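In response to reviewer comment 3 from the previous cycle, which asked for concrete evidence that the modeling workflow produces usable outputs, we include below a single protein chain processed end to end. The sequence was submitted unchanged, and the resulting structure tokens are shown without manual editing.
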Amino acid sequence: AEEPYYALLLGSDAREGDTASRSDTMILARIDANKGRVTLVSIPRDTKVEIEGHGTQKINAAYAFGGASGAVEAVSEMAGVPISHYVEIHFDELEKVVDDLGGIWVDVPVSNNQTGASESISIRAGEQLMDGETALAFARERYGYLEGDFQRAENQRLVVQGIVNKIMALPPTDLPGTIQSLASSVSTDYELGDLVTLAQQFQKAYPYISIYSCMTPSTTKTINGVSYTITLEDEWKDMMELVDAGQDPTAAEVKTENTQATGSTSTDSSSDSAASKEASVQ
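The workflow returned the following structure tokens.
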């Protein structure tokens, strides 16, 4: 039986004409196919790290400097775990993936018009079937939320959950073809056969699949005019111990040091815990 391992999910929002691209989304995923369990940990893109040869940087710069392998190295060092694989998707490819699956079901935590500054189509709170265009807007939106980037990070994990749920519900005979089709929309170091096998292993556990979901405990700080997300090291260490043991990481006691970020840094436990507590796939 295969041991649990870590993979890094990368999303980049590079638009045509961009010379350098930074990864907008970084989700560290612990994958335990034998138990049908996945843990998704969002790494805030503004997280302050040291990158060899480049000094103090935001973690999303690691992708600009070293591509996917640079991002893997930076997250691996920050989390203190080895990362075996990566999957990278551009946001416009996300739209195609969701449409190819016939849409995904997402239970939207809050509507995206909290601030009146939303840049995208209106998305109400509640459970709904999203097409590719809506899922893309949901994954991109941050100005419409009071919690900005923190809400966006949770939304992106919900999109990943929605995609996993939809794949798991496919007839087993459709699985290999669907995985092959979806794989053409992502960049990854997985072999196609390994992805099919992985999906088949998870499907055996269906519908008793657990998807845990959390975010790096952090606070925000402006240093030399640059706004960074600062990892709360003690809480992060406690959380990663739970992640590494395959337990619910939202059980870690997380404090937030920054009043303006209250709630948004507490591993999203208020909104996420329901989804992460042994979230049997719908």
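The chain is about 35% helix and 25% strand. We consider this sufficient to address the reviewer's concern, and the full set will be provided in the supplementary archive.
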